[in-house]
């Protein structure tokens, strides 16, 4: 088929035919995406740090219990990190149902989002801890710091740039995951792009959804980079 | 004040056993500056870490005052550590904290209230001469300044003992001198016992009162610094003392080779002198008495905290007979003479 200028023109005009857009729905979907992103980021941040800490602390221990715990946690982390997100959502449907009593709506997206991103972030946190200067740890211990004090006053502040840049990367991939979660009914911009944009042949809706998602990603990246720049005094 | 008794420390891993310390017995007195000198792997670092309980001995006891470290539980050891400051080769400051916050760090751990923390930290920063750098971050400081912060931090909890782990090894000679002066001042003014480990005999010579020379897990020689310098017995000690005296061995050797070409018949001797003998007109007298010509190749004088110690490398020119006489005459003075080269 030869390319027809008229057809291409029609396609382009479809993309910018903003009259087909219900801005109310766009706003609703944006709020849902933001809700899923923000809540999952917060949960992943907390869970990931705890899990990362657990991985780090149990790995270097020579206590047999710690070694076993490390093996189990490391295995689960690797498993959850490896399952493709779209499959994980489906896999977790019964669990989600039990937890949030629904398999649609933004809240239903959260368990899968958290389950898939926490292990990923935990690994980033763990490697951040591993980069902390051992000499500084020794210095803190030589001052009589307890394990908890070393974690709170040395590991966390000294690896903060890594922790922050890690959560930035994680948050960005979470935005992507929310779009996928949207497709199977969790709402949000992914859902909007799929249902309104694709199934009802309104490319403009898809385009707007895409732009909003990009904006969200850019803003996250900007905030992340700025924070890292501000706290990194190395 | 610190007693080490029958200390043994072995590490075990997949590759087998490693004896870091074999049998260490030693008492360090209150208020002294005690140095451990040795090559890397001699066990100095391990020994230092036994004193603040970062490591526990496999055998033997470490006593600080009346307390035996190995009898204490973890919490009590941590409490004990607050009274032992430590400084490090690589400073080990927290990059995320300003100078002031770094110095306050040990005070936070000791649960000192905020106002006292601030006041103490500020005083210490002044003591180490960094008043205008309080709010700088470590990355903005030079090596010498970082070590000053390290020292201020180590002193924050008013320790009885300060441990120094190669604290000047990463610094240039001038900064090293400044840091050593600071340590000496702290020892004198705050009456802090200082225990330092180093592989630089220069550090020992400049500030230590007593020294123990370590080699593969043992103390091979121990005593007042001046005695060790005057009369080193163990080969390792001799090497350290010699190393410190020959400021630039290569250059001396080159100079010797050159002179050897110029005056093939000369002998080259090294004269070591200390204390009052530094002031004697030995060279002139020997030259006048025996009629030899004396060429100075290299000379230096070094101060120990008690008295000066000097080295002079000279070439003695003259007949075999005269030179022999000169050598004998040299030996009547309170100096040590070593013939480095003697051409027939």
TrEMBL record, chain A:
Topological type in the membrane: Multi-pass membrane protein
Parts of the chain that traverse the membrane: 34-56, 68-95, 107-125, 162-184, 204-224
Subcellular location as annotated: Cell membrane
GO terms for cellular component: plasma membrane
SUPFAM superfamilies hit by this protein: MetI-like
Pfam family name, one: BPD_transp_1
InterPro entries attached to this UniProt entry: AA_ABC_Transporter_Permease (IPR051322), MetI-like (IPR000515), MetI-like_sf (IPR035906)
Keyword entries, A-Z: Cell membrane, Membrane, Transmembrane, Transmembrane helix, Transport
Domain of life: Bacteria
UniProt xrefs under PROSITE patterns: ABC_TM1
One example of a Gene Ontology biological process annotation: D-methionine transmembrane transport
Matches recorded under CDD domains: TM_PBP2 (cd06261)
Main location per the UniProt record: membrane
Record domain ABC transmembrane type-1: where: 30-224
Family membership: Belongs to the binding-protein-dependent transport system permease family. CysTW subfamily.
UniProt-recorded name of the protein: D-methionine transport system permease protein
Native species: Alkalibacterium gilvum
Automatic annotation (TrEMBL), chain B:
InterPro entries, sorted: AAA+_ATPase, ABC_transporter-like_ATP-bd, ABC_transporter-like_CS, ACT-like_dom_sf, MetN_ABC, MetN_ABC_transporter-like, NIL_domain, P-loop_NTPase
ABC transporter domain segment(s): 2-241
Pfam families for the chain: ABC_tran, NIL
One of the record's GO cellular component terms: plasma membrane
Keywords of the record: Amino-acid transport, ATP-binding, Cell membrane, Membrane, Nucleotide-binding, Translocase, Transport
Recorded catalytic activity of this chain's protein: ATP + H2O = ADP + phosphate + H(+)
SMART domains recorded: AAA, NIL
Keyword Metal-binding annotated: no
Gene Ontology terms describing biological process: amino acid transport
GO molecular function: ATP binding; ATP hydrolysis activity
Gene3D superfamilies assigned to the protein according to its UniProt record, in alphabetical order: 3.30.70.260, P-loop containing nucleotide triphosphate hydrolases
Positions of transmembrane segments: none
Membership in a protein family: Belongs to the ABC transporter superfamily.
Reported function: Part of the ABC transporter FtsEX involved in cellular division. Has ATPase activity. Essential for cell division and viability.
Protein name (Swiss-Prot/TrEMBL): D-methionine transport system ATP-binding protein
Organism: Alkalibacterium gilvum
Lineage: Bacteria, Bacillati, Bacillota, Bacilli, Lactobacillales
């Amino acid at each position: 088929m030869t390319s027809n200028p008229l057809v291409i023109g029609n396609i382009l005009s479809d993309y910018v035919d903003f009259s087909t857009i219900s801005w109310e729905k766009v706003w609703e979907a944006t709020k849902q995406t933001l809700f899923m992103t923000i809540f999952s980021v917060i949960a992943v941040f907390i869970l990931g740090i705890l899990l990362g800490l657990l991985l780090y602390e149990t790995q270097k221990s020579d206590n047999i219990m710690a070694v076993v715990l490390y093996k189990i946690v490391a295995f689960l982390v690797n498993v959850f990190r490896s399952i493709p997100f779209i499959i994980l959502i489906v896999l977790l449907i019964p669990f989600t149902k039990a937890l949030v009593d629904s398999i649609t709506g933004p809240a239903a997206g959260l368990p899968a989002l958290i389950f898939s991103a926490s292990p990923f972030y935990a690994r980033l946190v763990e490697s951040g801890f591993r980069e902390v200067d051992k000499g500084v740890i020794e210095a803190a211990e030589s001052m009589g710091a307890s394990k908890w004090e070393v974690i709170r006053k040395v590991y966390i502040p000294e690896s903060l740039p890594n922790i922050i840049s890690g959560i930035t990367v994680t948050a960005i991939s979470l935005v992507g995951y929310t779009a996928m979660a949207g497709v199977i009914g969790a709402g949000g911009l992914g859902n909007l792009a799929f249902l309104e944009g694709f199934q009802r042949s309104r490319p403009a809706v898809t385009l707007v959804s895409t732009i909003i998602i990009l904006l969200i990603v850019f803003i996250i990246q900007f905030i992340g980079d700025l924070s890292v720049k501000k706290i990194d005094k190395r | 004040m610190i007693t080490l008794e029958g200390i043994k420390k072995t590490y075990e891993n997949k590759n087998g056993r490693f004896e870091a310390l074999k049998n260490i017995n030693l008492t360090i007195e209150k208020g002294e500056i005690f140095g451990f000198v040795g090559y890397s792997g001699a066990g100095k670092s391990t020994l230092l870490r036994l004193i603040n309980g970062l490591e526990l001995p496999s055998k033997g006891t470490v006593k600080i005052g009346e307390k035996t470290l190995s009898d204490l539980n973890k919490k009590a050891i941590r409490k004990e550590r607050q009274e032992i400051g430590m400084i490090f080769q690589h400073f080990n400051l927290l990059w995320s904290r300003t100078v002031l916050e770094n110095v306050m760090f040990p005070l936070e751990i000791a649960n000192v209230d905020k106002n006292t923390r601030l006041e103490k930290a500020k005083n210490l920063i002044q003591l180490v001469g960094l008043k205008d750098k309080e709010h700088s971050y470590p990355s903005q400081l030079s090596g010498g300044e970082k070590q000053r912060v390290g020292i201020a931090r180590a002193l924050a909890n008013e320790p009885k003992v300060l441990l120094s782990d190669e604290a000047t090894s990463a610094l240039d000679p001038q900064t090293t001198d400044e840091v050593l002066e600071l340590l000496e001042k702290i020892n004198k003014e705050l009456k802090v016992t200082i225990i330092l480990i180093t592989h630089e005999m220069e550090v020992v010579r400049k500030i230590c009162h007593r020294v123990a020379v370590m080699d593969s897990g043992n103390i091979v020689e121990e005593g007042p610094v001046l005695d060790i310098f005057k009369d080193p017995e163990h080969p390792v000690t001799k090497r350290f003392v010699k190393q410190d005296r020959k400021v630039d061995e290569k250059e001396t050797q080159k100079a010797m080779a050159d002179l050897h070409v110029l005056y093939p018949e000369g002998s080259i001797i090294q004269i070591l002198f200390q204390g009052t003998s530094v002031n004697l007109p030995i060279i002139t007298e020997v030259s006048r008495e025996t009629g030899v010509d004396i060429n100075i190749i290299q000379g230096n004088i070094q101060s120990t905290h008690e008295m000066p110690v000097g080295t002079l490398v000279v070439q003695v020119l003259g007949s075999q007979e005269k030179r022999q006489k000169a050598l004998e005459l040299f030996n009547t003075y309170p100096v040590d003479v070593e013939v480095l080269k003697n051409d027939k």
